[in-house]
Amino acid sequence: MYHRGISVVLLLVACFCITNGVYGLNITDCGTSDNVTIHEILVSYCEDVELCPLIRGNTTILTIRFEVASVVKNLTAVVYGTLGDGDLFLNFPYKHRDACKEESGLKCPLMPGKIHTYRASIEILKLYPKLKSVVKFELRGERKKNLICILVPTRIVDM
């Protein structure tokens, strides 16, 4: 009986993971370009939770694996967040805006036919209030056009 219960739970978890696809538990698309195929999105500390915890005093790592259908000469990272359950997005002061430099792992131009891995390190300061927030993360190409746009439901917490 015990083993059957574990088997059922493992089967449900496997089905849940498959149906969630590349976006993870509650990460949703908010306007990714048709010229981009996202293969995987990972957020540190965000496995099997409804709201991704952003731990004050720590750095959250966002990793996006994707392909482009045409050459991308430059990328700009833009981060927004809501305060609480509001729907007004406020600009977040993200210091690594040039996604082709710094520690992102990308080298522009990005070429089609290759899987690219972008990595963002987002510092969660201790002075941030503990609250729920939806984080909107965009990678913009030429003419500020969204190539990737995702929404991540989060909560700012202490360790």
Automatic annotation (TrEMBL):
InterPro entries assigned to the protein according to its UniProt record, in alphabetical order: Ig_E-set, ML_dom, NPC2-like
Segments forming domain MD-2-related lipid-recognition: 27-154
GO CC, alphabetical: extracellular region
GO MF term list: sterol binding
Record's signal peptide: 1-24
Localization annotation: Secreted
Family: Belongs to the NPC2 family.
Protein name: MD-2-related lipid-recognition domain-containing protein
Species assigned in the record: Araneus ventricosus (Orbweaver spider)
